[in-house]
Amino acid sequence: MQMITDILGPAADYHDALHRLDHRHAVDVLRLPRADLARRRLRAISEGGREIALALPREVQLYDGAVLAIDEDSALVVRVETERWLRLAARNGAVALKLGYFCGNLHWRVRFEGEELLVALEQEDRLYHDRLAPMIAAGEVMVLPDRESQPA
Amino acid sequence: MNVSPPITRKGPGAARIGIGGPVGSGKTALIEALIPVFKARGIEIAVVTNDLVTKEDARRLQAGGLIDPDRVLAVEAGACPHTVIREDPTLNIAAADDLEAAFPGLDLIIIESGGDNLASTFSLDLVDWWMFVIDVAQGDDIPRKRGPGIVQSDLLVINKLDLAPHVFVDAAAILAEARQIRGDAPVIGCRARGATVEGIDQIADTIARELLFQDIPA
Ligand SMILES: Nc1nc2c(ncn2[C@@H]2O[C@H](COP(=O)(O)OP(=O)(O)OP(=O)(O)O)[C@@H](O)[C@H]2O)c(=O)[nH]1
Ligand SMILES: [Mg+2]
């Protein structure tokens, strides 16, 4: 088990070294769901099969591209799993207010894209659809096709 | 290569775990059962309790003789219990920081939420990992009702297995259903109080493995 107790810095700071290691397929990735970025301690397996124990100081926060280890022979970098979003539109302004209030009450993580509201799918899809069903059935809220958008 | 030396920091400190769950499900009883197990394993712990407007649970632990009373701090939520573990956990963070400063050798700080509903969750700014404790006497349909506590917790504990026959609940069935709903996430059946306890070692093992990185098979 490899113990990690700090983040060395963003991948951009190690660009050249990571580039060289990558050529030798020596950059290992710790892929995490976005929700896990908030954790300071966790046990996980890297894509290269290494067992990782992460115990970060409380003031440190994980992020996509965080370099956890690097030397002449290998590196370990955090990558965040691709997120899925539910794209919604509201029939009018009044419904939009209601929808925003509703999502906030449920602690859903959202993003705004112009007239559309995106809800991060962090639990079973069914849970989101069940909750929205009355507003969808009433024609107040429309589920739009996912446009493969990856909000930054 | 532009490698700046890592900034020297204090180090990770003690692991912090949360225990949430409905009123009276056995959160404090579970802490009381875990304390001797951790002690026997040489794991140094401290506890933060949350009550609405009293320090009842802290007093109970302090008077129990299981733990040095100075290692127990109380936070009074003053409002819905989830506000101080999720929306604004600063009071609890301060309490945990105080314990860590007073007892630098701590391995684990346990934060008990006040009894709340099935929607309560912990902020990961406050804890590294959290478990949700329900009990069989609250109805065998509780796992089915889901709720963020049931679904999102790192460990679901179903307590008071001894009461199952008295409240017309099939313990094996409620555990099986909870496991099915949670997929890969763990569920442990438990009895925190009584002539014999059950599941406590397994809960301690899970914490020691996931948070303290001890080499215990899953
Ligand atoms: N039969 C039985 N009773 C239990 C068990 N665990 C706890 N109890 C009882 O359940 C009651 C509530 O236990 P607590 O530990 O105070 O519950 P809690 O979740 O901390 O309660 P709050 O902090 O008030 O939400 C007490 O009377 C305990 O003795 C158990 O495994 N079996
Ligand atoms: Mg209690």
From TrEMBL, chain A:
Secretion signal span: none
Residues in UreE urease accessory N-terminal domain copies: 15-77
Top-rank taxon: Bacteria
GO biological process: protein folding
GO MF annotations in UniProt: nickel cation binding
Keyword Cytoplasm tagged: yes
GO cellular component terms given for this protein: cytoplasm
Keyword terms of this UniProt record: Chaperone, Cytoplasm, Nickel
Keyword ATP-binding in record: no
Ranges in a coiled coil: none
Pfam families hit by this protein: UreE_N
Protein name per its UniProtKB record: Urease accessory protein
Lineage: Bacteria, Pseudomonadati, Pseudomonadota, Alphaproteobacteria, Rhodobacterales
TrEMBL record, chain B:
Any Gene Ontology CC annotation: cytoplasm
Domain CobW/HypB/UreG nucleotide-binding: 17-188
Record bears the keyword Nucleotide-binding: yes
A GO term, aspect molecular function: nickel cation binding
Coiled-coil residues: none
UniProt keyword annotations, A-Z: Chaperone, Cytoplasm, GTP-binding, Nickel insertion, Nucleotide-binding
Binding residues annotated for GTP, in chain numbering: G21, P22, V23, G24, S25, G26, K27, T28
Subcellular location, record wording: Cytoplasm
Claim: Plastid is one of the keywords in the record: no
InterPro entries for the chain: CobW/HypB/UreG_nucleotide-bd (IPR003495), P-loop_NTPase (IPR027417), UreG (IPR004400)
Database matches in Pfam families: cobW
SUPFAM superfamilies in the cross-refs: P-loop containing nucleoside triphosphate hydrolases
Predominant cellular place of this UniProt entry's protein: cytoplasm
Highest taxon in the source lineage: Bacteria
GO biological process assignments: urea catabolic process
Similarity comment text for this entry: Belongs to the SIMIBI class G3E GTPase family. UreG subfamily.
Quaternary data: Homodimer. UreD, UreF and UreG form a complex that acts as a GTP-hydrolysis-dependent molecular chaperone, activating the urease apoprotein by helping to assemble the nickel containing metallocenter of UreC. The UreE protein probably delivers the nickel.
Function statement: Facilitates the functional incorporation of the urease nickel metallocenter. This process requires GTP hydrolysis, probably effectuated by UreG.
Listed name of the protein: Urease accessory protein UreG
High-level lineage: Bacteria, Pseudomonadati, Pseudomonadota, Alphaproteobacteria, Rhodobacterales
